[in-house]
Amino acid sequence: MLIYAHRGASADFPELTLAAYEGAVEQGADGFECDVRLTKDEVPILWHNASMLERAANPGLIGEMTYKEVSRAYPQILTLDEFLNFAVK
Predict the structure, then answer these.
(1) End-to-end CA distance of the chain
(2) N or C: which end of the chain has fewer CB within 10 A?
(3) pLDDT, tens digit, 9 for 90 and up, residues 29-77
């Protein structure tokens, strides 16, 4: 059986963060699953919901915020590029 980390090791770390995916590797995950959203300026980021309501200081809609605004509201946000660079290591 293969184990895929949904949003990383989200029981132990903030989900969809580098720490969560590093934790998943340390815990023996065979692969990853992540959700991708586009910011207003079309930067693909890892985020589950359309809104940042549940985790961020500024609970706006991802599609209505620029990457800079999103990263200010949730500094540990990962871009898809950052995630893929980590995943291929």
Answers:
(1) 23
(2) N
(3) 999 888 999 999 999 999 988 988 777 666 789 999 999 999 998 899 9
Pair of tokens at residue 68:
């800079």
CATH number for the domain running over 4-87: 3.20.20.190
Residue with tokens 């590029």: 81
Catalytically annotated residues? 6, 48
The Cα 45–Cα 84 span in angstroms is 11
Question: What number is the average pLDDT over the span 71-88?
Answer: 92
d(Cα 10, Cα 65) in Å, to the nearest integer? 24
| Nearest-angstrom CA–CA distance, 51 and 85 | 25
Strand 44-46 and strand 31-33: the pairing is unpaired
Write down how long the chain is. Answer: 89
